[in-house]
Q: What sequence folds into this?
């Protein structure tokens, strides 16, 4: 009887390891120590470099969405059993915060206990708005995402993960406060007398009407700063007021319809990143503006969108055009602490050293939540062969 394929054997080994340890996070060496012998037996492998084959198979499983890259040599098992969605999904609000005990990772998942499961199942397949109340950091409404599925948290019984569909998370260009002019922006939280219903307002997961969703999205994505794109990036993006070709009398448009448009998302990602970096390149300090008021600085994704990187500010960094070009090609990298790493492939090292900060340290935003996440920086270093 022929042995299993490497892909089948490694996928089965990962599942066993996750069930045994109770954690979806694992590293390559631990997997080898725990499951290596069985993998070799099942594949009937007699090659001289089996663990190089394992590395290749892990990359294949990552491309298939079975595992996700977390850091150098570290992965997360992504094939979790999903809880069923309820019929008739609706948009919702997820309350999170900088000081949340649940360890939410908004671009990827929202973590919650069993008592909110029914509410969470009602938003599967639809859009949610993230809200950070005053007690938890105070950003207000700050981002949107689309809930793909609900899965049990393998690390803790009685906890669940609302998994955010890849490519849908988007931070607003400006945070939207809970109240404007003394009135809740989310009108569904008001009772018949126009007073705030505190019982609804404190719900960690709650439904939101299309009207309230559209209002908050419009406020968050409206042009708050005159940060114009560079020449060559002036192609129009879909309007937040109406779809292309829509007549005025056809009524309001669900704002979720434009949130998946790539040009629109790129424009909003750029605005959000340049806002927190004040339009200044994080590696050179330059803030060049042409005669038309257009910033030369660009917003770079640290982990590329094509590889699953989200349109989150902490997956972005403001870079001048030349530095952006070098960063995307792995000629420049960054440590978690912001040390600027230069590749040996640079042909004009002296010129690059004159261009970047003399202390070779990037300048991050003052707010911790806006700084590059170590997970994305580690992905970029591994992708281009920089030291961990």
A:
């Amino acid at each position: 009887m022929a042995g299993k394929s490497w892909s089948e054997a490694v996928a089965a080994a990962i599942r066993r390891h996750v069930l045994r340890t109770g954690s979806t996070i694992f590293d390559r060496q631990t997997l080898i120590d725990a499951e290596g012998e069985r993998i070799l037996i099942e594949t009937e492998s007699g090659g001289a470099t089996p663990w190089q084959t394992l590395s290749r198979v892990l990359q294949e499983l990552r491309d298939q969405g079975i595992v996700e890259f977390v850091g150098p040599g570290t992965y997360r098992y992504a094939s979790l059993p999903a809880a069923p969605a309820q019929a008739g999904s609706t948009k919702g609000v997820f309350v999170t915060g900088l000081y949340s005990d649940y360890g939410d990772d908004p671009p990827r998942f929202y973590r919650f206990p069993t008592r909110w499961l029914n509410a969470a199942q009602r938003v599967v397949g639809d859009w949610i708005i993230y809200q950070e109340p005053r007690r938890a950091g105070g950003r207000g409404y700050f981002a949107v995402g689309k809930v793909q599925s609900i899965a049990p948290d393998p690390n803790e019984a009685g906890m669940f993960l609302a998994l955010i569909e890849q490519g849908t998370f988007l931070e607003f260009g400006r945070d939207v406060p809970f109240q404007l002019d003394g009135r809740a922006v989310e009108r569904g939280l008001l009772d018949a007398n126009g007073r705030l219903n505190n019982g609804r307002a404190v719900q960690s997961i709650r439904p939101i009407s299309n009207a309230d969703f559209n209002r908050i999205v419009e406020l968050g994505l409206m042009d708050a700063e005159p940060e114009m794109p560079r020449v060559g990036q002036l192609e129009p993006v879909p309007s937040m007021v109406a779809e292309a070709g829509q007549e005025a009398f056809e009524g309001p448009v669900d704002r979720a319809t434009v949130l998946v448009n790539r040009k629109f998302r790129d424009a909003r990602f750029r605005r959000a990143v340049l806002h927190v970096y004040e339009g200044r390149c994080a590696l050179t300090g330059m803030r060049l503006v042409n005669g038309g008021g257009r910033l030369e600085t660009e917003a770079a994704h640290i982990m590329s969108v094509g590889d699953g990187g989200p349109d989150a500010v902490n997956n972005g960094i403001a870079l001048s055009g030349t530095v952006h070009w070098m960063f995307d090609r792995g000629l420049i990298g960054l440590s978690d602490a912001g040390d600027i790493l230069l590749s040996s492939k640079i042909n004009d090292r002296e010129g690059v050293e004159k261009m970047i900060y003399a202390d070779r340290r990037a300048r991050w935003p003052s707010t911790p939540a806006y700084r590059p996440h170590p997970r994305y920086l580690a992905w970029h270093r591994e992708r281009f062969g920089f030291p961990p």
